[in-house]
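During the first year of the project, the team set up a workflow for recording each protein of interest as an amino acid sequence followed immediately by a discrete structure-token representation. This format lets reviewers and collaborators read both layers of information side by side without switching files. As required by the reporting guidelines, we include two representative entries from the current panel. The first entry is reproduced here exactly as it appears in our internal archive.
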Amino acid sequence: MEKSAVLTTKLFAITISILSFVNTALAFDGGSTDPKPQPTLCDELILPAGYPCSEYVVQTKDGFLLGLQRVSSSSSARIKNGRERGPPVLLLHGLFMAGDAWFLNTPEQSLGFILADHGFDVWVGNVRGTRWSHGHISLSEKNKNFWDWSWQELALYDLAEMINYINSVTNSKLFVVGHSQGTIISFAAFTQPEIVEKVEAAALLSPISYLDHVSAPLVQRMVKMHLDQMIVTMGVHQLNFKSEWGASLLVSLCDTRLSCSDMLSSITGKNCCFNESRVAYYLEQEPHPSSSKNLNHLFQMIRKGTFSKYDYGKLKNLIEYGNFKPPKFDLSRIPKSLPLWMAYGGNDALADITDFQHTLKELPSTPEVVYLENYGHVDFILSLQAKQDLYDPIISFFKSMGKFSSI
């Protein structure tokens, strides 16, 4: 009875938190696009570091305006090495992150800068809803329809359009680097022949296609409480953990049995190697918003153990897909000829080793694999040792494709 009472109290507190947000957002479904000029990723992080950076806007088939940044090596490095632009590489961020994730450490430690200094034509992807993208052609962010998407649309619309655009500008196949959600959408997109034919090779950090062995305590608690379904049912469409409400919601999930003194570890697993003194700086950029539907889709993967399209329920599935069950993304459809490089960690509580092995079994190819026993989920983008552990091997992998014959 005591355990049941605690859970009931916790659910009540969370419900009050959600309702208070809904009550203060009664105008959430209307309004026009905010006209205030927004800072750009180039201006915030890349140009100040001395790297040339250009902003691009790409429109998806369903009307979202995505931000893409194109980064070159620093002027001194370009002059010294006399390089033209190398092959294009697209960087794909994780959940509740955006393109800034690749530039949060020093130029010597951040993959975006390192790739540019090695002569790559670096393109930085930002999916819909993040602060570095640019809204929608007709929908305000205050409109619930603006947030009616999950990673399924990120794969089939956002990533597809990014790849098409970069391919058309450079007239070249591109390399793809993904982390976390960036790997989910990569796997899904690579099952589509019209998308994968424009990809030269991919390097995937913390690769995810299955999630049923997630061990992160805070995520397990949210799944058990069906928090995702509660939020969707109560009419909350945008998830923004930078907001006062979002931060309060996370804190409301903590108690004496699940301490939030180390919130990051309770979500990602214990990270070994990032600079904890820079956490305040990281939090100036992260987290970015996502949709409640996206979280719901991810939690469906955890509960069902599937890598499938969004499950609307039998009736709407029949309308949307012509079947009572959502169709799977079939990893065996990823071409055997597509070179893959993957790295996973022993302390990663989201990209679990068992789930990763499941992914490997379904792929028709045999990827190059790196295992880092001490790495947690965030180490793959923020570790102070990532250059030697990950980024140098990625660069060697890409250069082995023969696109750097002149250097």
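The second entry, processed by the same pipeline in the following quarter, appears below.
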Amino acid sequence: MSANLGTAAEPILRSMAGRKMSSPVTNRASPMGRPLRLPPVARSRLIERLRISCSGVGSGSRGLTYKDAGVDIDAGSELVRRIAKLAPGIGGFGGLFPLGDSYLVAGTDGVGTKLKLAFETGIHDTIGIDLVAMSVNDIVTSGAKPLFFLDYFATSNLDVDLAEKVIKGIVDGCQQSDCVLLGGETAEMPDFYAKGEYDLSGFAVGIVKRDEVINGKDIEAGDVLIGLPSSGVHSNGFSLVRRVLAQSGLSLNDQLPNNNGKPIRLGKALMAPTIIYVKQVLDIISKGGVKGIAHITGGGFTDNIPRVFPSGLGAKIFTDSWEIPAVFKWLKEAGGVEDAEMRRTFNMGIGMVLVVRSDATARILSECQGSSGAYRIGEVIVGEGVEYV
């Protein structure tokens, strides 16, 4: 899990899942500088929902839920509520720290149990892209340009060739987001992880001018929701994915069913790297009209879109406004997963949602057609939460 925390007494950017471990480590520090320890600024409107990544065994073999798979989103919300009492100032998708006429924006995350599929498929050269994406996509929601990235790679016994593949993916992700891999840490902890397995964490810092922060405060009813396509499941919901896979009777080497005649192995489809939206989103922001941005990660549409709204506003989502990718249709059918659970767990084919002025909608949609496309998926309404029509 990850959360951006800070208090006056302890002015650092903290990760609840990133406590320092007393173990043999190899420090990878850049001569350009050393990692910053930065306090986030409180964003009084919103409390960041923890993105909890864990695995477990639930009950029941039909109508699977994320909780059945071992992930309790409601428990995560309760933990955030309690933390907020201890450390007021938990922010949105990233933590903001004032620096002159700008804010530094920081975020931290991992890739969850998608790592389990990396171990099973042997696909290690793109998991680093996922790692970078989860943090830089969070901080770009504030309009911040990523500056640098730090990684943490932990394993029981260091396999240099495997680690090189993982780090190559991290470098690729940094190049895609136009930031620097400034340094990191490699921890070799015998007996702590299973043979051949490892864990990853990442940390990104970006910058945005104070008067250019995207914070959602001007969002109003009638504004339009534009969705940017995802590449698939991205890096959330894999505890449920793995439960569905086990129940389905298929293997990672089997073909993804009903993929419009395009053959692809299930393992490859599930391991498709998370799209890094940084360059596309910053370009859209630079032309005006963007009021708020939501990164669709754990919690799906249902929990993430309302995070950027002022009180009293909600979202209406037009469920037929984009084609749901085959991988989500398979997850729903093979797991018997209800629509509400799908929408609160997965991105459903939309990885980033922009809240824009209605008069900017046509221009933004037209300009996005030259890249990966975009969809008008809904609108802001008076009310609370998310309504699906």
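For the second entry, the following points were noted during internal review. Confidence is low (pLDDT under 50) at residues 1-61. Residues 224-388 form a domain with the Phosphoribosyl-aminoimidazole Synthetase; Chain A, domain 2 fold (CATH 3.90.650.10). Both points are flagged for discussion at the upcoming steering committee meeting.
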